Amino acid sequence: MEKRAKDILNELMDKHYKEAVDAKKNNIPVGWVSSNFPQEFIEAMGLVVLYPENQTAAISAKHESMKFIEEAGKMGYSNDVCGYARVSLAYTKLKESDAQNMPLPDYILCCNNICNQLIKWFENIAKDLDIPMILFDVPYNNDYEVTESRLNYMKEQTKYLVSELEKITGKKFKKENLERVMKISNECGKEWRRAQEFAKAKPCPLSGFEMFNYMALMLCARGRQETVDLIKMLADELENNHKAGKSTFRGEEKHRVLMEGITCWPHLRHNYKTMVKNGINLAGTVYTDTWGRMYDDIDEMLISYGLVLDNLNLERAIKRRTNIVRKAQCDGAVIHMNRSCKIWDGFLYEMERRIHDETGIPTVMYDGDQADERCYSEAQFETRIQGLCEIMEQNKLEGVK
Amino acid sequence: MLSIGIDIGSTQTKGVILRDGKDIVKKSLLKVGTGTSSSKKILDTLLKNTDITLDDIDVIVSTGYGRKTFEQAKMQLSELSAHSLGVCNSIENVGTIIDIGGQDVKIMDISNNKLQNFVMNDKCAAGTGRFLDMMARVFELDVSELEGVAKKSKEVVAISSICTVFAESEVISHLSNGCKIEDICSGLHHSVAKRVASLSGRLEIKDNVVMSGGVAKNGDVVKWLEKELNKKIIVPKDCEFMGAIGAAVYGFSKTR
User: Fold this and answer.
1) Which residues of A touch B204 (CB under 8 A)?
2) Global ipTM
3) Does residue B123 sit at the A interface (CB-CB below 8 Å)?
4) Which neighbouring-strand residues pair with A284?
5) A323/chain B closest Cα distance in angstroms
């Protein structure tokens, strides 16, 4: 039977983790890397790396996070610290997960373009395990664009990055390898954008939650040809579904929403069930939209890493959301006030207000957490989604746009 | 036509029988909420001492946290829509509705008698009816007595804690230091009003602000909220029944 995109996805994710396990057995250094690190350099040097954010998301989605969260509490990490960090730090102590095991690192690569808390998280691991850490420092953008001085700062760091990686791993950096990986990564970004465009079609050719699964692979392997092939396959599947008027969304898609915020992994199933029950599909997700990175040269590549979601100034961040609302023809917005992510939460009240003011759609906000199960109330979520649904129904009846 | 609206909240259960979607035939309130025996008792309580039987009722609609478990309801509605319908059925030209319930605070933006958008409190009981219940217990009062006590206040004591549990400790500390109960009480009402006003700021507060829910019966809270919002607040006569009324109105509109 012909394999579908989601079958190959599972194979590639398993392969990603197996590579690291095999590397450890063969005394090849394994790195832990932050999600939006310029992976082009890593892939160009053929390094074996893992991504703790992928692991912690999987642990949280499979309901194993509380074991680590509680351990992190005993280790001295407050509940106000990011949930991913707490799970990861506790994992380095407990070293065992039923949901997603992975070998401990021999070096750390940290890029703070998504937040500065990452620095402390990764530094603590480096200190606990007595291993080197390389920080790729990406300043926050108060301006709409990445300024020339910020770009130059990042460019200078690439020289240090390469020389340190060569020392730590014993591998040699070659410019032609970087160019090859950049070409592949671009292709991957292009196919991801194509998939995302079809995902926004009306009706959606898939349940919007499914894109989160593919996001894990985009995070860890977007510089590989096999990922390009898979994402192309996904985009083709979505295109075919769209042309045939088919969808993997169960039931009638009555309403389309923008999902704002990091996924509430421990309660994703409840989120999904509640929304499907109300005929609501995720037509646009801010979190998945961020992976369609495309560029023509190294400068543009570095700029793209400076323009990740949490590194945008407010106006640019708002524009990104309102663009998604318009392209995906969203009837409403569901906003996750994620206790773990203070940097994201900090602008959410204003973001909610601006989305409503600029697009006219009703919005709803709910409390949760990306890893800590305790920060969520099912009844609260259900009431708010139902309330939102009732407004969207009313707007539909009245032809309100 | 007779419709019944049942609002099963976190701390109280309210029921209303409505004739032709507008006249209240009977209303009942039980001081227990979702997960208790209230859902079994509320219909009996409503029909008691009337000539009406269950067979005379054309539709029953439930709302509130316990809405899904109320078996006799033909339909259920979120309390957001229910309160909006209830208030707009009672008051004209509503701009904003503020509902302070047992554990929720809701701010609803209304235009042309329709709910346009809403915001609710984060997962915290501070500023809700539960907060006042706990504080009333500390004072050894019934929550209905708080307004009368606060009215005697001459020098309000500020309550700074944002957490209900910590605020309770703060109140006990003030009592131990000899602060007058009426001054602390008014301070508590002020802290509720500040919290609600802060939440309200996330939506545009229009003229014709209406308060619904049990806490609206506390005139001292209403007075403080008027000060914080710099707006006059209308409190309808049956403010704590607005959810149940709205549910009954909804049932009528869907069934006639």
Assistant:
1) none
2) 0.84
3) yes
4) A258
5) 21
